[in-house]
Amino acid sequence: MSLKRTLNVLCDGNDNFNDAYGKNVELKRQKKVQPLSNSNDLGLLSPPVTPEHQLKAVQLQNSSLSSVSKNLKLSLAAETVKSLEPKSGCQSLSQIPERKQSPYTDAKNLFLRSSQPHFDLNFILSGREKEAKILDSYITNSLMKLESGSIYVSGPPGTGKSAQINTTIKHLLSNARPHNSTDSNVHQVVLDGNLERKVRIIKFNCMSISNPTELFKEIYYKISGLKYSSADGSAQLCRLFRKTKENDCDMTILVLDEMDNIVNRSQQSLFELFTWASTLIDSEAKPNLLLIGIANALDLTDRFLPRLRANCINPKLVQFLPYTAEQIKSVITTKLFTLLEDNKENIPGKHAMLPPLVHPAAIQFCAKKSAVTTGDLRKAFDVMFKSIDLFEENVLKTKNLDELLRVPIESLPKVMISQVVKVCSASFNSNFELKLKPLNLQQKMILAFLFKFEEKLETERAQANKTKGYRKFADAISLGSFFEYYAEKCKIFDNVITQLKRAEFLEIIGSLDIHGLVSISMLNTSSSTKTLLANNGVSLNFDNFKVSSSIPKMEFFKTINDNIVLKRIVHSNY
Hints:
Elements: H1 2-10, H2 17-31, H3 62-84, H4 103-110, H5 129-145, E1 149-154, H6 161-173, E2 186-190, E3 196-205, H7 214-224, H8 235-240, E4 251-257, H9 260-263, H10 268-276, E5 289-295, H11 300-310, E6 316-319, H12 325-337, H13 360-373, H14 377-398, H15 401-406, H16 417-428, H17 431-436, H18 441-467, E7 477-478, H19 479-492, H20 502-514, E8 518-522, H21 529-535, E9 545-549, H22 553-558, H23 564-570
Parallel strand pairs: 1-5, 1-6, 3-4, 4-5
Antiparallel strand pairs: 2-3, 7-9, 8-9
Helix pairs in contact: 4-14, 5-6, 12-13, 13-14, 13-16, 14-16, 18-19, 18-23
């Protein structure tokens, strides 16, 4: 029947068509002509049950196809409208009530990994003020002066690298004006002083390619929409970055995320891109390119940058250190305050109002636990999501949803520290082995000596308390006293341990602090060196800093296995 209706449309309602159609079919059956053969005048006959592959396609006239397509669209539209019409006894779409969800569900949505990051009016993520200022200043100056350049962003996962760069670009486009270009990647950006620049923005995730040689092909297709010709080489892509009559863009901003995937396999493609974004190319043929590379690996700088610097290419370096406990606490608190209807007035720090749904002690515990283990903000979000979900499940057992919706969100029961402790114990305990496994022997030895030194001070303090001695013990271990203890113990193990110099010792202690295995802070403050060294320019030394372990002692002892040197340190006297 559908075939018959279609044919009726093609013939514009010709009443005599059905008779002609029947006679023609009968004639072809008598001649035993295959329906899909060349003599098929209609071209719309159904194929046999077991088709004989004499022809691979049926050619139809363009006018017939256009008519069929037009009428099919009209039919589909009519069916859609009919299906949306309310039937008798049924509500219309506008009358269907919206499904209710508890305030705890709204809070959980804030901590999904796919949720949008929260930034202030200046498009700065919480805890990334310094990095955002560097990025915004460098990009703005490059566009104003029309100077090509490159930015090399590095740091562990979950430290806000991609989020802050995307937010900075969003800030750049917040003043963009409409333009006549059909390319959605091109924007008319307005800078300070009403200076306009036509900017193309391309974002590319390097994890989507399996072969580094495909990088140019993918970028070329994103810009031009055409197939990349390998015969022309990289010059074909380089021409797209130049301002010509066909390409009137003042600058192209190319963001390469997950750049580790390419550096680990081949550096040639990246090297060419950084070369184009440098001052090494002649001015007449120079590409207008601002390259932003994002990498997770901490040692990527040592493996890739030396080659760039050897060729006089010096990208702007921006390092994102792991989040500190105070930064994680600030991010979580700020997100929770957005649940309030008057969230613009309820900004943390403006008054003594507590955040909704989660107790401040629970936020503090989650922040500290996340900071000392990984410093990954995403891990903290996972803990908050699971904690709220666990609490919501228990609350809904005693109260129904309507009761919760009648209570102001500020007065609802809060997630307590007990739920967060339960989730953290299940989430982080298994991570210690992953963090300790890649350490080298020198790093593990310093950790072992630190645990022994802490045991020694605890024993001496306990004995002094028993005898009511007057000897005063320091509340924290200074780097100087720990180095003296380390040097003394190395003399005992002189035949198996080589003592590190002071500079080497500081370097290893600093790396252990970055990975969250030890905590280093100034003697007169509790702030971590991750903030002090980055923001204040303080140099790490032996006199002004204290050190303490940040992981359970037993978790470290599990990783010793059959290492004779570490066993001797652990089981030796204080």
